[in-house]
Amino acid sequence: MASTSTRGIIPTAALPGPQKNHAKAMKTDLLGYLEQIAPQGDFLKLPIPLVPTYLINHPDLVQEVMVRQSRRFHKPFNVKYTANQIFGDNLFTSDGELWKILRSVLQPGFSTERLQDYSQTMIDYTEQIMAGWQPGESVDLCAAMGEVTLRTSTRCFFGLDLYSSQAGDNLLRFIELFFQRISGLPVPAWVPIPSNRELKRIIRDLNQFFLPIIEARRQSGEDHGDIMSMLIQAQAADKTGYITGQQVCNEVSNLFAAGYELVAYSLAFTFYLISQHPAVEAKLLAEIDRVLATQPMSTEALAQMPYLEQVLQESMRLLPAAAITSRQAIMPVTIGDYTVPKNSMILIAPWTLHRRADIFPEPEKFDPERFSADRQTSHPIPNFSHLTFAAGPRACIGKAFAMMQMRINLALILQRYRLIPAPDYEFQPVFQFNTRPRDGMPMVLQAR
Ligand code: HEM
Questions:
Q1: 396 has binding-site annotation
Q2: 390: CA distance to ligand 1 center in Å?
């Protein structure tokens, strides 16, 4: 158990101010709102009509929901409904037996050996992106990190570089449609409105693109060393009937969608934080230069850069791109001293948990030393407090993949460039299912 104490449910009525002010604040700036109310209790009932909704903000309560009682919770109906209309059944939103099968089929695709194979792709695309850069020019870092992420993941997942292709554009549009839908009223896919017609066209085009590739690969039996090949092998061995060609297609699109924005924005946030902290930057550049002076980039080289990993962990603590996760109770569940009714929505917000001053002293300070081996020995961070990739059985399957890609991107780019925010750039993170910088991130490339 963590040493911090939990502080009971504070019902909505106990939160200060009229209810309508809460609703308005939640709508205009959800992260700001949660940040403001979180210090008032570890278990807060939020003023949301119809569905009882709670924010939990303590590592012990997180452990209850994500680990000990994880079977009593499912992914929330609105996320399931919206995502399934777009991606079909998939690992991210399925529950029960289907989830178990999909997770066990996909897990080997992220093994240490597979990651070792993907590392060269990650290195190659970082070099390719930089080949198009000129010292002194300004780039939109969100777009650039989006490009490197799209090319890397489509190559590792499907064996194809889908950048600037119809299929790549369709995948990106898929993600946008998901965000638009999850932020508005859920409209069934059969209602003939323009966005539904567009969705139908994209689903048809992506099926027409992927299904023949899947079928050709199935017939040839050739292993391309990517996630798609692994799923096709699982399809051949499957006795349950769950792993159809369509399921393989859904899964590869969903895997791409689950990681794309989170990786691109986490990278952009990290470059920004480094640019604002000269002492961190100096220490990091010294480490990268020392290691890469005697060897090319590789997984062995990365293992010699512990400070790089600390910088990334601290950046994702302070600015978690997956700022809020949620669960829905499938039965009444007792968490700590309280029982929440069936269908309750539980929000777990890394954004607020990572700002608990009793766990992360001076929480607004960007301090990569929090994650150093020494500090971890003298002041260990309690389990279930650092939740960037969630915890328990539904923790992120792509964590090691994402960490490796981001460390490779950061080290190779910083070896050559300092990134300086454009003169009138104002950094402002906003929440739209994920956290993203408002209006992109213009950065000037200064050759080192
Ligand atoms: C910085 C990058 C990333 C972050 C911060 C991140 C974060 C997360 C979080 C917080 C969850 C749990 C969501 C929940 O409980 O509702 C999750 C799940 C998941 N992530 Fe990631 N993720 C990242 C990259 C990736 C990548 C690259 C992939 C694809 C390879 C990926 C695939 C998934 C999938 C499929 C799940 C659902 C797993 C399951 O339910 O069994 N993620 N991720």
A1: yes
A2: 8
